[in-house]
Amino acid sequence: MKTKPDLSFWKLWNLSFGFFGVQIAYALQSANISRIFATLGADPHSLSYFWILPPLMGIIVQPIIGAASDKTWCRFGRRIPYLFAGAAMSVLVMCLLPNAGSFGMTISTAMIFGLIALMFLDTSINMAMQPFKMLVGDMVNEKQKGLAYSIQSFLCNAGSLAGYLFPFIFALIGISNVAPEGVIPDSVIFSFYIGAAILILCVIYTTIKVKEMPPKEYAEYHGINPEEEKNEKTNMLKLLVKAPKAFWTVGLVQFFCWAAFMFMWTYTNGTVAANVFDAPVVERTGKWLLDTTSTQYQEAGNWVGVLFAVQAIGSVLWAIIIPRFKNLKAIYALSLVLGGVGFISTNFIHDPYLIFVSFLLIGCAWAAMLALPFTILTNALTGGHMGTYLGLFNGTICLPQIIAAALGGLILSLFPTAVGEAAPEAYMLALAGLLLFAGAACVFVIKEKEQ
Q1: Any idea what the CATH number is for the domain that residue 407 is in?
Q2: CA-CA distance, 177 to 174, in Å (whole number)?
Q3: Which of 184-188, 281-285, 303-307, 429-433 bottoms out in mean pLDDT, i.e. has the lowest?
Q4: Is 1 a domain residue?
């Protein structure tokens, strides 16, 4: 089997540049879904259920995209056709989702419209996102994979930074940040429009700049018999049985990490609104809930975007540091511990600027989660099923999110609130910190390659 040659920095950069645009879309979704559905009238105890759809679509779509792209060879490449199709669909849905409350529909109809749009948005983001991970696995040698995935992590977090800040910036320049009950503010709607435009431009750039290996060359570099591969049927169950130990041991760490971040995406808005911005509460159906029509709540929604941007800055800085460590397990565990400290500290900070420290620490965990699992896994994989394995590995990202989303409302209801008070969401971020500590402990059971 031939060894893949070293690639220049800019070739590694071009492989992942489109990820910048994809991550803007993902950041806008992550920072605004709870806000959008709460504004439409969702009970905070039900918010986690809206978050089941994104990972559910991921666990279905990504293995299919991985297996299909393993068998795809055309003039446009192997992974890039799926990347472009997913991006095009994302652009369309990004223009529809934030308008869920603007078409004169009843609350229940607007909720259903929003859910359908969210389902298609996450399906298309998954279609666009997964090929980038596969491109690195296909084209980058083992020595450079750590750098390649760190570049991808950097671009991912730079895109997140832009996406998180858009609503805050638009409100700052005078675009309305409040709207009638059940209607999404213009600052959010315009953010999705701009994000869609940037996404398609970035993906076009990668499509033009990246030339994938032709089938014969790919086979030589990956130790594949082209004829056998052509006739071989992909059996995902058999591939799972044959998966390297790295697949399962890294997957165990992933379980705790992604459950923690699901709680962050779902409950940060309520935590910041209540603990930092003192948003008022109202009584609805016998429960004390945050008043989503209040100026404080909508200001908190924008500030959550700023906090997530701070997290992205922390991730960018930490992604530069990670490749300097030769011991992948040590830096992986340290990153998760720092993130756990960040989550727990949000319970004790009530200043809008001091809480930046918490999210900088959370960013360290995020940077490690984006880069290190794929570095460890792809170094352990050989043969022609790279895309299928990476698609299946996405289950270790999606399944914990589905479980966390399904149980989130039940866990939230276990935390008591006093009359006229509504801030149990902060406890969920503390729980996220404990989950990251558990993930850090599991790092040391990871089996790198076959041992």
Answers
A1: 1.20.1250.20
A2: 8
A3: 281-285
A4: no
